[in-house]
Every structure is written in structure tokens, then in C-alpha cells.
Amino acid sequence: MSWRGTRRQLLLWTTVATGGLLAACRQQETPTPGTSTQVPGPSPTSAAPVGAQTPTAEQQGATTPAPQPTEPPRRGGILAFAIDADPPGFDIHQQLTAAALWILTPCIEPLLRGDPYDPTKLVPALATEYEISEDRLTYTFRIKQGVKFHDGAPLTSRDVRASLERVVWPPEGVAVQRRTTFQVVDAIENPDDYTVRVHLKRPDSSMLTALQVGIYPAHLIESGADLNRPENVIGTGPFRLKRYTPSVSVELERNPEYHVEGLPYLDGITAYIMPDPNTVVTAFLSGQLHIIRPLFQPPLDLLQRQLGDDLVVEHRPTPVNWGITVMPSKLDPWKDPRVRLAASLVIDRDAMHQAITRGYTKIGGQQYPDGPWALPLERLRQAAGFSTDKNAEIERARQLMAEAGYANGFDVRILTAQGEPNEPAMLFVRDAWAKIGIRATLDVKELGLFVSDIINRNFEATQSIFPVSIADPTLVWREFVPCDTGGNFANICQDDYVQLLDQIITEADDTRRKQLVNELDFRLIDEVGNARIFLGWLTITWGLYRPSLVTWTWGPYGPADETHMTTWLKQ
Amino acid sequence: MSLVSYTIRRLLAGIVVVIVATLGVFLFMRLAPGDLALLMLAGPGGQGATSLDPQVLAEIRHQLGLDKPLLLQYLDFLGGLVTGDWGESFWTRRPLADELAARLPITIEIALLSELTAWIIALPLGILAAVRRGGWFDSLVRVVTTIGLSIPIFWLGTLILLALVIGFDWMPPVGIRPFREQPLAHLQQVALPVITLGAALATSQIRLIRAEVLETLGEPYVQTARAKGLHERTVLVHHVLRNALLAPLTYSGVRLGVLLGGIVLVETVFNIPGLGRLLVDAVVRRDYPVVQLVVALQAALFVLINLIVDLAYVIVDPRVRAQIR
């Protein structure tokens, strides 16, 4: 969502939109019969009926209407769910693990957040509105007034500026992984108490997404406090941190001064630290946990048998795409692009997804398959390795191997980390490569050893996994397309890929941008760009809950989006 | 040599054992590829490994002190161990004293109760099996203990929990509750791991008690006692058990030392935040301070328990006392 008009036009449209939204919200407070427009969102399974979804009074600026509720929300109660480990820290600017984000997202808010009913959109959170200048070099945010932090301090533009500066130019001792994204930021200013401006050196269409940064009080940042400590979790969110008991639980309590009236509904949230997935499932069955998000496929047969209709199962591809990076510098055959292409052609991705994910995900391009930048299937099928005529592709692969002088194949070690789905996926690749004479052995290593080998480039071929952003198509490619990135293992740098990526970054028109994204996506797959054989989407994120106990909307961006401000308990 | 000098010599030797153990663990952990900084950035599935920022990596390593010379790191650790400044966990940044204080009590509680449970089960069954050797009871005990030894404890624990939920729609409360605050909930939480672990420990204990009692029953002094006309129960209690239980007691003492180091499988299945889980998680994460401290404490505990058991032998058994002198 972007604004390119004058400030007067912005105010006019904001007033119209806000007025319409307020009217819609008033309607939603008293349920009325009839239907509203169904919003495209995360795709639920057909295993069980979708639970009732609550209208969200917080959707200021949201342009997507919510589904009509079937009963009014109840107040009170403590939501319980499990996390698989202690959060490694509590600094939302540094923490990327789901265990940390599930705790921090309800406490610390950004300027903008994902629309819970439409993953393609951002809606204001602490910002009431935003404006992008015509030259796309200046982003202006208007900060919501009357908001307080958990320690009682009022939110002003000084706090927003301090938080943004901390991420863009991290001080010593603060490790922010996304900082390469912010290299384009030139300056940040706050001309008044409720306005923040971010100036860029050059246009970057990803900047709006990148600026979804948690806002801390300026006095906390300036004091030099270690924000990784639980006592320094101070934000403006609907919940605040009450207690952290290591290896036991993290408890959040309702923020009584939350700036959205009437929210949250819950009295608190307790995240139990439970590393064993079997114990988590058992606790869910007993009703002690309201929501579970297992990393591996849960025992659906058992759960459905025990819970029947009182079970909602949602799943979506984890925003992490899988591939194999081959190292031409370590193994001569990989130097020949025909060999790399052959190795890609022979892999049956459809069968692989069916085998690894049991059909719960489907093939897609390098962009998130359910997102706005996804490569259309008919185009994807034209890419090498994705055709439905697998026999023809295998035959072509054999010809390429023969042309390259490897008709008898060669030996290769595939470095992979222990566990699922790493090992099954690489076993599948090994079996596929055997069809064209590539004799692969798996070099399965414990995570620490695996990471060490990756860093030291000690492999001939390895699984390579990159996180993607649903909203920002460039995040994944910034990791391995440019010539000087850590993710470009093979050090194969093609100027045309880099130029295409630059065009995507600077392109303002969304339609043209989508075309460019699809083009780069296709080429990287079809040409085995940067010696990376793209495989697909092999991991699934699950969300299960019992509609008799809780009403919950799964955020489109996963843990970075789950505030629970509209979650409520039925019992 | 007097008992005091014997004890002092054993303690000094114990200190050497602890130092060697910590040095071994220190070197092993440092030499294993992949440090905590790498794992922090790589994420739990390693997906961040392919896009690590070397500058960020160097910063984290510097924060954690991993860029210091190895000798300096080890001396820092030893010095802290002696002075009581145990440092912080690399992962959670919490003081290690707090981490241990949070976990040690529950580990001790479950270890002691499990060992007691094992004795309650094993003692009567072991004795009866030996006294009725060759009979149906003896055969039954041997079959059951063989099966028990074959069953993985984590499988048993998971099965028990699932059976409770499916059959009775109940499982112990999640999230350990202190006994002081919620005694009933606490007892509900520890009962299952104690029973599961105690039953598992009892299987080997039964067989040991049976073997020792059988051997002692064949001793000449037992025949003499019977020849004197003593009641069989008197023979058993006053002559057989006092000798037969020495070995099982020793074994129990040593095993308690192992249990006090944490029983990670039971802790994981029953969601107990104990020392075992702390140690395993720390090894996987390369959380060096935690691993080093826990190993040092476990080594010290083992040395101490072994010393206590050996001293008990000296006090109880005049033959051992004579050997020392």
C-alpha cells in the first residue's frame, strides 16, 4: 500500500477510509446476519471446520473486512501454548527464533504490521498513517497519540527514531542480521513529537516492509540497557512481560492501558517451555494448551479421533525455501553448467513434495507460493526440473551429462544437517541423481558441525535454506544473488541477475515489479543460477487449536505477527 | 594410616579428578566445530547458516569472550569456580548460580524419590525371588525384569502420559509448580516421573539383590546359623541381608550420583526442568559455561558420593578397616 499524492489528498482519503472503517466496526460490534467478503488469507485444511473469527476493533486503516462473528467475544482467562525452548534473548531487534517472537510480538509493537486477514497488506499499528514521497526517497510516518509504554512513558517520535536508528545503525554489542537491508537509509529525523521521516539514498521498494521494527522507549535505548534481559521487555503492546521462569514458562499479563480500547480480551498469556513434541500433543489433548504449533506434522489421526469436530488444523508452507548449492571450486564436474542443469532436471519435485510433506505443500517458485509474488504455476512448469514430463527431463539430463563428458557419472558428498526433513530430502536427491550416474553419499552432521562446514565452505554439495518474506520479494535474493554476500557460496556472480535484482528493488510500479520478480525467479530456477538447484517448499508450519476453547486468528507472518489482541477464550 | 588422613588423601585425589574432568570437557567443547555464536545466527534449523554476516558473527564472539586465547578462557573458568563467580549462560545470559538453583532441587527430589521407589519395589521382590529360587515366582520376576530392562524409558513415559489422557482425560499440570505454593499439583507432577524411573531402576536392582542373597544363602555361616536352630526369618534378616545388601547399597550410591547429574529422558518426556535437560541443551547449543560448570559439579558430586560410600564400608566392615591400617 503506497501513497503518492499530496498531503491534502492523503488526509481526504484517510478520512473517508477511517469513516468507512468506523462504520464497519460499529456494525461488527453487534453481529448481524448475512455474509461479508471472504478475505484471502492463509489456506486452512479441509480437515475440520474453521472456528468463529472475531471482528477486530484494531483494524484502523485496514482495508480488508473481517469475517462476521458468530458470537461476541468473552473477556478473561489465560491463553496457554508451548514453545520448544527458552528464548535465547528478549531483544526483538536481535531475536529471530519463533520461541522469542511468540513472546515478544504481543509486547512490542512496530509502526506497521501485517493485515491479519490479508497477507499482502500492511496496516498501521503505532503509525496512524504514512506517506511516501514522489521520488520515493522519503518515508513519513505519523505516530499515534495517547499511547503509553508499559512503564508509563508516553510514546513520541523520539522513541520511534531511537528504535529505528538502533536497527539501522546498531551500536556495538547489538547484532542485527538485517542491517544490509538498511544500508540504503541515509538519515532519520523527527521534526515534531508525532512525525518521523526516514530518508533513503536511493529508492527501495522493500523499505516499508523492512521498517516493521519493534518500538522501544528512547530512554531505555539511550541508557545502554541490555534489551536481551526479560526485565527490559518494555513496549506498547496489548501484553507486558510478567514473569520468566527459565525452562518452565514465560508469563505475559494484560496491558490495562493498551491504546486500542476494549482490547485485549485475555487476562494473560502463558508460554510453557516444552521441548518434547509428544508431551505437547498430550497436553493439547488434555486441554491444558489451547494452541499448538508443532514444527513437524502432528499425529493428526490421533488428534482427530480424540477431538473430532473440536479441532481446527491449519497449515501453510514455512517461509523458508530449500535448495542444494553445489561447489564448483570443490568438485570439477560442477564447473560445467550442463552438469548443474542435469542435476536439477532429474529431480522430481512433485514426487519430492508428496514424499517429504505428504502433499501438504505443493511446488512453487522461489517466492512464497501463497504470496503476492508467487511465480504462476504454468510458467513454473516451463522451468528446468519442473515439467510434468519427467521422463523427457531425465533423458535430457543424461544427454547433458554425456555432452559434458560425464556419461559414467561421478562421486559427490552432500553435506546435510541431522534430522527431518534434511535427511529425507537429501536422500531423495541422492536417489534422483543416481539415475544419471551421480553417485552421492550423505554427509550427515550435527548442527554445530554442519554450520561450521558451511562457514568454511567445506562441502561439495549442501542443502541451502533461505528465509523468505511474504511481503518483500527481495529479501531472499539479497542473500545469494549479489556478488559479495555470504549466501553466494559458489561465488558465481552474474551481472544480469544483479541488474534484475536492482531493478526490482527500485521499481515503483507493482505490476511491473511483479513481472521482474517472476522473471528473476524463473531464470534462477531454470538456469540453476549461482549454482543453486532450487527444490521447493519442504517444511510446513502447523497451527492447531480447539474451537470449543479458544478463538484465534493465525497471523499471516507467523510469530512476527501474533499479538493475540483479539484472541479470546470460550471457557 | 588413620581414617582422617585416608579421607584427606581421597579428597585431594578428588580435586585432581575434577580438574581433569573440566579440562577434558573444556577442550572437547572448544575443539568441536561450531560455536554458540554460529548457532545463534544459524537458528535452530541452520537456515541462517547460508547468510551469516561475518561482522555480526565476530561481534557476538567478542561479546561472549570466545575470541580470547583458550588458556585464558580456561583459567577464567577455574578462577570463577573457586571464587564462586560462576558466570552466565551464553544462551540465556542468566547467572549460572540462578540456573542451577532453579534446577537442582527438582533433580535431587526426583533422583532421591526414584531411588527410594526402586528400593521399595526391588527389596521384597529380590529377596522373595532368591528365597523361592526356581519356583514360579522366581521365574515370573526374572521374565518381568528382563522385559523391564528392554523397554526404553522415554517410550514408557510417553505411553503412560498418553494412556492417562486418552483413558482418563487427565495429565499432570504442565509447568512445574513449587511444592510450597501448590503441593498437590507438585506431587501430581513428580509422581509419574518418579514411578516411571523408579520402576526402571528397580529392574536391575531386583536382579542384583536376588543374586547377592542367593550367594549369601550359600555361605557356611548361614548354614551354621540354621544348624543352631535359628528361625529362618532370623537367619535371613540378621545374617543374610546384612551381608547381601552391601553390594546393592554401593551400586545404589553410585547410581544416585549418576541420577543427580540429571535424567534427561525423563525430564524431557515429563517436562521437568532439571539438570539433565540443562546439560544436554547446553551441549547442543555449545553453551560452554553451563557445560563446564555442570560437569565440574557432577564430577565433584561423584567423588563425594564415592568417598561417602567407601567411608561407610570402612566404618561398617572391620576387614576393610584393617586393610587401610
List keywords for this structure.
heterodimer, A: 571 residues, alpha+beta, five-stranded mixed β-sheet, four-stranded mixed β-sheet, 28% helix, globular, disordered N terminus, B: 325 residues, mainly alpha, 15 helices, 0% strand
Characterise this structure.
The complex is a heterodimer of chains A (571) and B (325). By secondary structure, chain A is an alpha+beta fold. Chain A contains 16 helices and 20 strands. In chain A, the strands form six sheets. Chain A has a five-stranded mixed sheet with strand order 15-14-16-13-17. A four-stranded mixed sheet of chain A has the order 1-10-9-8, covered by helices on one side. By secondary structure, chain B is an all-alpha fold. Chain B contains 15 helices and no strands. Chain B is globular and about 85 Å long. Classes of the chains: A alpha+beta (571), B mainly alpha (325). At the A-B interface, strand 10, helix 6, helix 13 and strand 16 of A face helix 2, helix 3, helix 5, helix 7 and helix 13 of B.
